Input
Amino acid sequence: MYFLQCALVVNSIPKIRYFYQKRRMNYLTFSRTFGPQKAVSIRDIQKEFPDFNFDNLTNWQKKGYLVKIRNGWYVFPEALKTEADLNWLANRLHRPSYVSLETALRYYDFIPESVFSITSITTAKPAEWHTPIGHFAYRSVKPPLFFGYQASGTDPAFLIADPEKALIDFLYLNPRFSKPEDFAGLRLNESELLAKMNPDRAYEYLSIIGSSALEKRWKGLQKFLGS
Output
């Protein structure tokens, strides 16, 4: 009987150790696994650690190790230091998407004001999240209009509209800008626009979209710029 009890105890040790490790995963292991990617989703965690105890996330938030930015997503606050980091994160939070509209216009110095939202284009449902690290907004377009973007040359790299497509996206989703006088309030940087914009590429994009109303808005912008 004594030997049977000892055997049961010995057989239970791996289970006890497994349960303890599951309950008390070391944050260092977690951060080494996911830290390089700056943000982590519940899906990422479940894939890497199927038996992860999610109480750890609550504890690590209380200690300031992690910040919850939306349901199912967490970031390492010390890893997000630049505008490029936030644009990269915008790509990850809602897929597929690329940075465009006001954020891209500011990126190219087409508008002077700082943009307090990260604005993106997506083919998924529109979305908007106010988070502790920033405001993320996504405008939805049909799949045929999801083009005209490129990878930035920054680290980390993120997807952002070409200069021409950023303007076209803005005009497409803001039909109130049509006549030349409508653009005065935007305080557009005309010299940067004329220097960085490729008219041939813009008209190629407009021909792909095939919207006469959008072409009218584009011509209104060109008249405003005097070109």
